[in-house]
Specification:
mainly alpha
Length: about 100
């Protein structure tokens, strides 16, 4: 349980740094040529796909282990990807202005 706002902010900083590192790794692997190709709606689809997986893990009681075998992804992996897709969507929306 978080005890104060400083603890929350420190956790957020650590996780955002991890997300940005992951985004850097994935852009090196996959590039950015398809980012924004379908506009904000395309990025929304990616966020929704991660939301669906997260819902399966958290709300539908499908264990991390079962989904990790199928998708090779944990709850934390899914959350980091979802955060990164939100950041990508923000960049797409900024570029569309």
């Amino acid at each position: 349980m978080l005890k104060n706002s400083e603890q929350l902010l420190e956790s957020a900083r650590k996780n955002v740094e991890a997300c940005l590192a992951l985004m850097g790794e994935k852009t090196k692997l996959y590039g950015v040529r398809t980012v924004g190709e379908l506009g904000a709606r395309g990025e929304f689809v990616q966020i929704h796909r991660k939301y669906t997986r997260l819902r399966q893990m958290i709300w539908e009681g499908k264990s991390d282990d079962a989904l990790q075998k199928k998708h090779r992804e944990t709850v934390v992996d899914t959350l980091f990807d979802m955060i990164n897709y939100c950041l990508i969507m923000l960049a797409v929306l900024e570029a569309e202005k």
